[in-house]
Each structure stands twice: as C-alpha cells, then as structure tokens.
What does this fold into?
Amino acid sequence: MGFGYVSPEQLMKDRADFARKGISRGRSVVGLQYADGLLFVSENPSAALHKVSEIYDRIAFAAVGRYNEFENLRIAGVRLADMRGYSYDRRDVTGRGLANAYAQTLGTIFSSGGEKPYEVELFVGEIGDTPADDQLYRLTYDGQVADEHGFAVMGGAADVVAGYLKERYVEGAGLADALRLAVAALGHAGNGDGDRVIPVDDLEVAVLDRTRSQPRKFSRLSPARLNTLLGDRGATSAPQSPEVTAAEVAPSEVPPPARPQPPTTGNEGGEPPVAPPL
Amino acid sequence: MSESRIPASYMTPGSSSFADFLASAQPDLLPGRRTLPMGDAAGLAPHGTTIVSVTYAGGVVMAGDRRATMGNVIAQRDIQKVFPADEFSCVGIAGTAGLAVEMVRLFQVELEHYEKIEGSTLSLDGKANRLSALIRGNLGMAMQGLAVVPLFAGFDLEQNIGRIFSYDVTGGRYEETAFHSVGSGSMFARGALKKLYRDDLDETGAVTAVVQALYDAADDDSATGGPDMTRRIFPVVHVITADGGRRLPDAEVAAVADRVVGGRMRRPDGPIAELEA
It folds into this structure.
C-alpha cells in the first residue's frame, strides 16, 4: 500500500473500521429500563476504573472503548452539566442537551481528518418522573445519536447480548429481575457455547432510581447488595479473554464478514501495543 | 478546530475543583471576580444575622435566625441562612445576603463536582479548606463592605464526631470546640451558650440550646430576628449525625420554640445558671 490517492469514502470507511474494532474489543455494557428507572450493567473486573458514572441529578453516563478517551468525555460532561446547573438551575440540565454536545464533539473528531477517531461508544441516560419520561441515548464514535427504548447494548459482542435481551426483556420489571436478566445476557455466549455466570466482584452495576429521596438519583450497587439481589446463580466461571468476534455497532453500514480478532500483543498488523479496552 | 464541539478546556483532566474550572472557563460567574469601583456598598444590600452551632454526642447542630435588614428596614422576615453543603455538612452564612447565598451555591456545586469527578468525597478538612479558598476570593468585595463570613459544621466520618469551623474575611479557618456563633448577634449568643452548654446534651437538648441562644441574640441585636409567634416563623435548624444531615421540619422547631418562649414568659432572661459550678 503506497501513499496514493485515497478516496474520501475509503478514508471514512477506514476510520469507521478502526473505531469499531477498538470498541468491539472491550466488554459489553447493558442499559435497561426497569420499573423505577434505568439500570446499567457491565462486566468490569477493575474496581478503580469505572465505565458507568454519574453526570447529574437524573443523568448517567456509560461508555465502552478506550478508557482515556471516554474518561475525558465523562469529565467534560460533568463540567458541562455543573456549569449549566450553576448558571441557570438544576432543572435546566437535560440528558438531551448533553447528548447533543457529545454528538457534536464526536462527529467533529471523526470527520476532521487530522485526529484519530475516538474509539468510544456512549450511553447517556436520563430518568423522568414516570417510565414514559425516561430517555436512553446511544452515541456512536462518529457522532450518531440513537434514541433507545427498553434496552440497549454496546461494546463487545453487542448483537449476541442484544439478541438474548430481545427474547426475554419485559417492561416494568423490578430491580432484581432486571438485574438478573442483564447479568445473564452479559454471560450469554452465542454460537451455542456455554453461558458464563459472572461473579459479583466482576460486575459494575449502577442505577438511576427515581424512588430515591435525595435529589441525586444515581447509585452504585455494592457487591453485597448485588449478592442479595441476584441470589444463588450456581458456580461462577472466570471471565472470558477479551478477544471477541467483531460486532456490528453502526447499524447504517453494511456489516463486514465476522472474523475473530487477534490478541493485541506486539506489532501485528502495524498497530501500536495497546492495553485492552475496558 | 471547529467551534461546535465541546471546548478543549472541558475535556482536559486536571483540577477537580469547580471554582478553579470556572476561573478558567467562565470567570465572570465567580462571585469575587467582578471588578467594582471604589466605595462602600454595605448600605446597598441586606445584612445582619446570628448563626449558632453546637456539637453534641451524636453529631452537630446548626441554627440561624430568619431576618435580613437593610439599615433600619427589615428586608426579609423568613430568609434562610443555614444550608446543607452536602450529605454530612452544612454552612451558615453571615454578611451580605445576596452574595452569601451565591457563595453557598458555589460551595455546594464545588463539593458535588469533586465527588463526581474523583469518585470519592472530600474529607471534612478538605471541604473546610475549599470554603476557605472561596471566602478568600471574596476579599476584594469584603473590603468594599460586601463581606461574607460563614460558619461551617459537619460530621467527620473518620473521627466520628461533629466539628465546627469558623472563618474570617481573609479566608482564615479556625476549628472551634463545643460551640460557636457568628454574625452581628454572635456575642450575645455566645454568652448565652457559655452558661447553657454542657457535654452530655442529646439532640433535643442541643436544639433547645441553639434556640435559646438565638432568642438571646435577638433580644439584644436588632439585626437578628427572634421567633415570630404570630406568623410561626422559626429558626432554620440543621442536624448532622453519622446517618447524614437533615433540616428539622418546621413543626419540630416550632415545638421547641414554643417551650422556650413559654419559659421566657415566666423568666424573660432565660434559665438561671448556678453562681458557682
């Protein structure tokens, strides 16, 4: 491959493939509507690095992909929200406004040829006073925004997890049922392989719970609480290695043929050595 | 770079302080940053207060009166001067009412912002220090008569006790033991608490002590309001324990105030203290 002319279509496709590959290497995050609000579940063995975080009173953020990139976006989101809430009022901070700002930023980064595209995919969730007012936005690496309903999955083997959820999702479930469904979906392996039971210490779970008395509705669920909610699920198995089948996350594009990703060791394929995305 | 994206200053990690972030991104939103011409603006804005705080075995109580004055005129009868800073601390403010309320808002956002960015809450000393920095930033306006002086109290989860911090206009921070008071009526409140305070107070005892102290402050300071029995406007009382902080409902404070005022009907100067301990 030389330095000849590259058509804009090819350039964009290369950037899209690059971003998608990075995102699919990590572990999935599930966003799920339940009776009292929104539930976010991910398999995350790290206790220090979070994929799900609080942005504001009723707004939460979840991300997959390259940690330092989505960490920057998270910090920017908290600053935007606090700035707006301080200059106007706490009620004037909306998930939609935040999703717009993220979409602009990601779109600009993706379209400008100079910067490397962000290998991230985001959820921005906001709860209202009733389940009908709850919103869940999914933002892709190129700044597309999708308004999700019921449930959504991003990162890792997103279509496998989403397929499992689609068959079993029920509106208005209680927290325990919703949690069990999400955790089972994350452990589900496609292609007829055995389902894993993810240990509680490897789970990162948080909710936006409208029944909380404090104005800040975000709450992380501790391992003790998760144990109580999940109950006995049988023997847990060790986490899968990060290599997963390439997953389709940009629904508007023609899906590439599924192929197993090589582990990121050394300089295979001219890629720099990188830590596996979360 | 296109201007439609989130500015780079929002994206760069660094300070977890909201006030520092405002200083770089939007300095005109900070209370202390506005340049003013020389002069004394003290007469232009509501003033006057007494804020009292008392520690007891279970934690700490803070109460503030409800009056705001502009010269001889009562600007507001039911102003709130004690606010929760976060789940385990509260701040009461004396001085220029408008500026003080803005300072409290900024302080509340500052603490919440730190917790969200870092993922952990500040220690009580850390929170007290941040408040110090905010007050220090207001020194310019204080010298023109628009001073803000807070009283900060909270439950220290590491030491398991309630603690009180007082400040001066330069942002100097002083930890107080047992009890403290700030504001125009603070001398009278402190004198009352000297005789009323004891080590073995429970929550009701601590609340009664602060209501008594505020009554004595209002008795001698025109800028401090006593309990308004006809309109049923009573001091704002915050209680902070290991379980968190809460503002006492009006009905509870009313019950304590009714008892205190009932006692004053019999002896207007309040409960007698022994001549010798």
